[in-house]
């Protein structure tokens, strides 16, 4: 269910159809309802009195707060990763970056956004801080699809790519402070894109 939400199959404010999901997963209602309770504590679902559950929406104020926290977590991960990353991890990130650049040039959005997400997650893993990663995963899941699957203009997309191009040399040089600052700005620049998807009423618009 978490994956369905993160991938956008279950959109913000969509009602959870228990009958459909029990059939899809081949389970009874009891484990499904336990899963719903867990996802509600994570903020992914909202429990409705006597009416089941629905996918949580995000208000503009909440979105602003979430992005600021995510930006801080990723910036901290960059600083830590520059102290602990191995040559093998760095090589893997660089390979993903090159593949992402090829996807961008080919306008292969699906591959581009998948690789983009994997790069951010690889840097988080390289920080060697499990508490930081746990906080990050708990927050970013709610906006993961909109963060990695949409952009409003070619200029915004090109800016994001240019920022990623600058990240790799900083990571290779282990310049943690500079990389952290760049990452913070990079995440903050996503605010207009994500806000446009959720809209002022917290409902999801169609991605470009």
TrEMBL record:
Family annotation (SMART domains): FCD (SM00895), HTH_GNTR (SM00345)
The organism of origin for this protein: Methylorubrum extorquens (strain ATCC 14718 / DSM 1338 / JCM 2805 / NCIMB 9133 / AM1)
Signal peptide: none
GO molecular function, one term: DNA binding
InterPro entries the record matches: GntR_C, TF_FadR/GntR_C, Tscrpt_reg_HTH_GntR, WH-like_DNA-bd_sf, WH_DNA-bd_sf
One Pfam match: FCD
UniProt domain HTH gntR-type: residue ranges: 1-58
PANTHER family linked to this entry: TRANSCRIPTIONAL REGULATOR, GNTR FAMILY, TRANSCRIPTIONAL REGULATORY PROTEIN
Domain of life: Bacteria
Keywords, alphabetical: DNA-binding, Transcription, Transcription regulation
Name this protein carries in UniProt: Transcriptional regulator, GntR family
Organism phylogeny: Bacteria, Pseudomonadati, Pseudomonadota, Alphaproteobacteria, Hyphomicrobiales
């Amino acid at each position: 269910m978490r994956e369905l939400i993160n991938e956008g199959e279950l959109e913000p404010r969509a009602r959870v159809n228990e009958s459909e999901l029990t059939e899809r997963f081949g389970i009874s209602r009891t484990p499904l309802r336990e899963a719903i309770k867990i996802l509600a504590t994570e903020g992914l679902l909202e429990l409705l009195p006597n009416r089941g559950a629905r996918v949580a929406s995000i208000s503009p104020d909440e979105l602003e707060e979430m992005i600021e926290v995510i930006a801080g977590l990723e910036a901290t991960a960059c600083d830590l990763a520059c102290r602990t990353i191995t040559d093998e991890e760095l090589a893997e990130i660089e390979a993903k970056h090159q593949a992402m650049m090829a996807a961008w040039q080919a306008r292969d959005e699906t591959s581009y956004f998948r690789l983009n997400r994997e790069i951010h997650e690889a840097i988080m893993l390289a920080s060697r801080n499990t508490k930081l990663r746990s906080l990050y995963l708990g927050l970013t899941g709610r906006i993961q699809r909109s963060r990695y699957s949409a952009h409003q203009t070619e200029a915004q997309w090109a800016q994001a790519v240019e920022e990623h191009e600058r990240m790799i040399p900083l990571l290779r040089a282990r310049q943690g402070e500079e990389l952290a600052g760049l990452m913070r700005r990079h995440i903050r620049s996503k605010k207009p894109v994500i806000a446009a998807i959720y809209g002022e009423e917290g409902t999801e618009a169609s991605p470009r």
